[in-house]
Amino acid sequence: MADIVLVNVSGQDKPGLMAMLTSTLADYQARVLDLGQAVIHDELALGLLVLLPQGTDLERFQKEVLQQAGAIGSTVRFSSVDPNRYGQWVQRADRTSYVITLLCRGSVSPQLHAVSALTHRHGLNIEHVRRLSGPVQLNEDPDESKVCMEIRVGGELKDARVLQADLMEAAGSLYFDFSVHEDNVFRRNRRLVAFDMDSTLIDVEVMDELAVRFGVGEQVSAVTKRAMRGEIDFKESFRARARMLAGMPMSVLHEVTDAVRLNEGADKLLAALHHFGYRTAVISGGFQYVGERLREQLGINYVYANELKAEGDHLTGEVVGEIIDAQRKAELLREIAKRESIALQQTIAIGDGANDLPMLASAGLGVAYHAKPVVRESAGHAISNFGLDSVLYLMGFTDTDIDQALA
User: Fold this and answer.
1) Is 143 exposed, middle or buried (0-12, 13-18, 19+ CB in 10 A)?
2) Which residue among the candidates 198, 352, 356, 389 is catalytic per the annotation?
3) Which of 46, 62, 358, 393 suits 331 as a labelling partner, its CA being 20 to 30 A distant?
4) Between residues 77 and 140, the one the model is more confident about
5) Class of domain 96-182
6) Is residue 134 within 8 Å of residue 402, measured between CB atoms?
7) pLDDT in tens, 2-42
8) Distances in Å between the alpha carbon of 4 and those of 13, 59, 65?
9) 198 among known catalytic residues
């Protein structure tokens, strides 16, 4: 009977080791069933699962491999694999896998322990870990350093919502961000990223800022609170607030727009996305004028927001066209994806408010950015401790990828 052998090689990583080992495999006409390799601080861990032809002299094969590895100071361990056990492993390979992206600061070990313990509790097994962030510098303040890892897990996950809730609770006490998503072809092939604007892409709520400068801040805030309590819907509240801006000089809108600042990491994220060929969009319940300025500044492909009517140099308090509310945001995401021939599963939506939830739920990856708890819990993916550029980690990009894109 043919032998299935697992060959584990460890030791200092040296050039030519793989070529040397595969030369022996070729001489014995061994069939490679699986292989994996990792190098940590120049230390190698290599695994080769091979099927040796029937009649192979197993002792001789092992002796030759030992001699080759020993010549460069590597250690080899052989394990025989029962064909039935191999068959069971093949069947398990078809099960659903998930990717957990862990983003944290500090010593990392408490956060990593929390995530690994929870995955174990939920019946998942860690199969692969990949560091996405760059090497940690010893002179860095641990509380300032950023560490991101991509953890691939497999197993039968009974309830993803319970795992999500458990991770959310741990993240709240240990101050880390995370994302859990199914490891499928769409996760690796996102093509469209849509942003809410106010308090997501930029650091202010423009309506509130305009109201304060025009002297109607308290009145506008009162209407906003009524809308948040569900007493009036978004469209009605938006029209009511817009009417309070009637007579406001356009120069005030220009001044507020000029003073707008991007949220941390926004410019870096947009530059990287465009370098990698992604389409981008702003879908906002804010103002078109501000969105157009961001289009010019950041090269955004699509901008959909609300337009205030003006006569001469003053606002009339009226709104031009349809008001973009929560449902319209989701519809626009779908319309852009269809126009670009992009599957909805290949889209990413990022927002901070409850009116972003339908858009976040429609996207293949919906990310709550520095949002309130109800939005974080509903969105499923959240960034609460880092900048917008951290979304690149959720997409699987490494610091090396990002640095090359921005070079």
Assistant:
1) exposed
2) 198
3) 393
4) 77
5) alpha beta
6) no
7) 899 999 999 999 888 889 899 999 999 999 999 999 998 89
8) 25, 13, 15
9) yes
Q: Which string of DSSP letters, residue by residue, matches 41-77?
A: TTEEEEEEEEEEPTT--HHHHHHHHHHHHHHTT-EEE
Predicted confidence band of residue 145 (pLDDT cuts 50, 70, 90): confident
Q: Which of 196, 227, 224 is nearest to 212 (CA)?
A: 224
Architecture (CATH level 2) of domain 3-90: 2-Layer Sandwich (3.30)
Q: What is the pLDDT of residue 15?
A: 87
pLDDT for residue 116 is more than 80: yes
Domain residue spans in the chain?
A: 3-90, 96-182, 192-205+260-406
Instruction: Return the percent helix, strand and coil in the chain, to nearest 5.
Output: 45, 30, 30
Choose between 300 and 72: higher pLDDT.
Answer: 300
Average pLDDT for 195-208: 95
Catalytic residue among 196, 325, 356, 389: 196
| Cβ–Cβ < 8 Å for 293, 315 | no
Task: Give 192-205+260-406's CATH code, choosing from 3.30.1490.150, 3.40.50.1000, 3.20.10.10, 3.40.710.10.
Answer: 3.40.50.1000
